[in-house]
Amino acid sequence: MLTRVGERVATGVVFRKEGRKMELKWFLWKGRKLEIKETTYMWRERDGRELIRRFVVTDGKDLYELSYRQEGLMWFLEAVETDG
Questions:
Q1: What is the CB-side half-sphere exposure of residue 36 using CA atoms within 13 A?
Q2: What is the pLDDT of residue 84?
Q3: β-strands 63-69, 50-58 pairing
Q4: What is the largest CA-CA distance in the chain?
Q5: What is the rounded radius of gyration, in angstroms, for the C-alpha atoms of the chain?
Q6: What are phi and psi of 37, to 5 degrees?
Q7: Are the CB atoms for 23 and 7 separated by under 8 Å?
Q8: Does residue 33 come out as left (phi exceeding 0), alpha (psi in the -120 to 50 range) or beta?
Q9: Sign of torsion, CA 2 22 52 68?
Q10: Which pTM value belongs to this model?
Q11: Are 12 and 25 spatial neighbours (Cβ–Cβ below 8 Å)?
Q12: CA 24/CA 84 separation, integer angstroms
């Protein structure tokens, strides 16, 4: 089941020099620290002039869509997909 969230979250990210990649490690949501096991998909899009980077990640159980708004340096949890 897909649930839209749209909440700002704190994240742990490693910025890799080679290829200018961002590697997500964890994010905080509802008082819990969720460890990211894998990034399954990522893409970029624009909202006017602002560049938004989007990531679909998994903690090994559920899928999460996170977005990074470069202009404001903010992360958002956009959606969660669970089995139930």
A1: 23
A2: 66
A3: antiparallel
A4: 39
A5: 13
A6: -85, -35
A7: no
A8: beta
A9: positive
A10: 0.89
A11: yes
A12: 25
Place of tokens 């620290």: 33
Q: What residues does 47 pair with on adjacent strands? A: 50
What is residue 14's three-state secondary structure? strand
Amino acid identity for residue 32 in this structure: R
pLDDT (tens digit per residue) in 20-71? 688 999 999 999 999 999 999 999 999 889 999 999 999 999 999 999 998 8
Q: 11 near 66, Cβ under 8 Å? A: yes
Q: Which residues contact 18 (CB under 8 A, 6 or more apart)?
A: none
For 46-76, give the DSSP string. Answer: EETTEEEEEEEEESSS-EEEEEEETTTTEEE
